[in-house]
Amino acid sequence: MAAKTLSNQEIISARFSKDALEWDSNKKQVESCEKAFEAIKRHVPAFADGSSKNLDVLEIGCGTGLLSFLIAPHVRSLVGVDTAQGMIDMFNGKVGALPDPSKANLAAVNVLVQEADDVHVQGAAAALATRRGESGHDAPYRFDLVISHLTLHHIPNMGDLLTTLWKSLKHGGMIALTDYEDFGPEAVPFHPIEKREGVERHGIKKDEIADVIDGVGFNEVRVEQAFVLRKEVEAEDGKPAREMDFPFLICLAQKS
Ligand SMILES: C[S@@+](CC[C@H](N)C(=O)[O-])C[C@H]1O[C@@H](n2cnc3c(N)ncnc32)[C@H](O)[C@@H]1O
């Protein structure tokens, strides 16, 4: 019998499920999420004008919730999705450890989101709405803001994902997606060699992602440098182990 070839999605879901237990103790991961949070606050107007508490947020690739738990106190609700069950288990463990989990305004589900009406996303959004006392919402739920950190580089078809995100938003809603920039072959060491299998691309390219977002029908598309993350990379190709600066982009756009 021929051996089954694993897809990139299967390889990275297995890897992230395994990595989930140690995820929050990775200082660089924590730092990058804190920097992404600061960038979102700088670039999404609702955080500056004091209206962020009205936002219902969808997060793609929420992982253990490092960014989600920073954002949640500032918004009305946050639904996280992730394809790695290990990540979702860690996220839910953190929700369960809150002083009153039954009042939490965030939840995460294990799903590969391919449509705006995905039953898992709709179910999570409905559960959070019920929790805050809403009843009789006309489904389907749509979001005010979609965020995603360090996940775009794992997405096989960014056009398909961006189309789903466009459909998942309310009119007037925004995306604010952060990931490291593909600034050429020097971006490859961002992942240690043993973690490169299954990685779809080594960062996102500024012009390419702007074209994808624009092509889907978003307005006011801006892709800007958000911050720089300095981290250690391993020795490779005759170069010693060293610290490198990795630029991160924030992809902003609106559904009018
Ligand atoms: C580098 S981790 C980042 C996790 C989290 N955003 C953070 O910064 O801590 C990428 C995450 O994206 C998830 N992921 C990869 N492809 C995905 C997809 N198509 N849909 C949802 N999540 C995905 C992985 O399971 C993993 O948890």
TrEMBL record:
Q: Which PANTHER family match?
A: PUTATIVE (AFU_ORTHOLOGUE AFUA_2G14390)-RELATED, TRANS-ACONITATE 2-METHYLTRANSFERASE-RELATED
Q: A single Gene Ontology molecular function, please?
A: methyltransferase activity
The processes (GO biological process) annotated in the record are: methylation
What InterPro entries does the database record attribute to this sequence?
A: SAM-dependent_MTases_sf
Query: Does the record's keyword annotation contain ATP-binding?
Result: no
What keyword terms does UniProt attach to this protein? Answer: Methyltransferase, Transferase
Which protein, by its recorded name, is this? Answer: S-adenosyl-L-methionine-dependent methyltransferase
Q: Has the keyword Heme been applied to this entry?
A: no
